Automatic annotation (TrEMBL):
Keywords: Oxidoreductase. It comes from the Bacteria. It holds the Pfam family adh_short. PANTHER family: DEHYDROGENASE/REDUCTASE SDR FAMILY MEMBER 7B, DEHYDROGENASE_REDUCTASE SDR FAMILY MEMBER 7B. Residues 8-189 form the Ketoreductase domain. The lineage of its organism: Bacteria, Pseudomonadati, Pseudomonadota, Gammaproteobacteria, Cellvibrionales. This is SDR family NAD(P)-dependent oxidoreductase. Gene3D superfamilies: NAD(P)-binding Rossmann-like Domain (3.40.50.720). The keyword Cell division does not apply. Belongs to the short-chain dehydrogenases/reductases (SDR) family. InterPro entries: KR_dom, NAD(P)-bd_dom_sf, Sc_DH/Rdtase_CS, SDR_fam.
């Protein structure tokens, strides 16, 4: 029998679409109370209709520091504790031709990195009320090796990887478990914009199943699919091979820009 998370109270960000939406619905159908967050209230309301007794809506933008200041109080109005938080909110912008647009980089870091910082800060008081709390966040296998065009996205996920590891180190004497989730390519509105082949592409529902299973098994890092994660982790440990064999086939830049 597949392991399931049951009878818990969870907060899932990025729940208006993609992996966050699929995970929220899956967990709600497994008899959990799910607080579903995202920027688009209408999308969250539609999600709530699919499981109205189990899904509670908290619309917020995790990248907005000012708006997130009110979230702890709003969370407390919905629940007295949190057993688990899964931070799925994020975005992706590619740096074509190495433009190094600072605004683009800031948008990506605001959502993918600082959004997780804001989420953890908002959730910590309620996680402290649970006997076995879990904080998980969505990274990416793109942080294992450096991909062309992914300077902003991959860097934000690499920063998240380090941040979660440091939080885990700081809280190692407490009950809080910190989990890094690193999926490969998942069919979502974000990846629908990709203009390149995505090997081992899976659905958001399949990703949600992998995430729940990994959380049930108590893993500190949840990488999937293995067919992609294992080769990337090998190449990450031997970057000379990655740069020699792979990146010349992936990069689109042939010459430096001239002023």
């Amino acid at each position: 029998m597949v392991k399931q998370i049951r009878n818990k109270t969870l907060w899932v960000t990025g729940a208006s679409s993609g992996i966050g939406r699929a995970l929220s619905l899956r967990l709600a159908r497994h008899d959990n109370i799910v607080i579903a967050s995202g920027r688009r209230y209408e999308a969250l309301a539609e999600l709530q209709k699919l499981c109205p007794e189990r899904i509670r809506v908290l619309d917020c933008d995790v990248a907005d520091d000012d708006a997130m200041a009110a979230v702890p109080e709003r969370l407390e109005a919905l629940t007295g504790h949190l057993d688990m938080v899964v931070a799925c909110a994020g975005t992706c912008e590619y740096d074509d031709d190495l433009q190094l647009d600072g605004l683009s980089y800031r948008r990506v870091f605001d959502a993918n990195f600082f959004g997780v910082v804001n989420t953890l800060r908002s959730a910590l008081p309620l996680l402290g009320a649970s006997p076995a709390p879990v904080f998980a966040a969505l990274g990416s296998l793109s942080s294992v090796v450096p991909f062309p065009r992914a300077e902003a996205y991959g860097s934000s996920k690499a920063a998240l990887d380090y941040f979660l590891g440091a939080v885990r180190a700081d809280l190692c004497r407490t009950a809080l478990k910190v989990v890094l989730i690193r999926p490969g390519f998942v069919r979502t509105p974000l990846t629908a914009r990709n203009d390149f082949a995505m090997p081992f592409l899976m659905s958001a529902e399949q990703a949600a199943e992998r995430i729940e299973l990994g959380l049930c098994k108590g893993r500190n890092t949840i990488d999937f699919p293995r067919r992609l994660s294992w080769p990337l982790r090998f190449l990450g440990s031997c970057k000379a091979l990655w740069f020699h064999l792979c990146v010349p086939k992936l990069t689109r830049i042939r010459t430096l820009r001239k002023h």
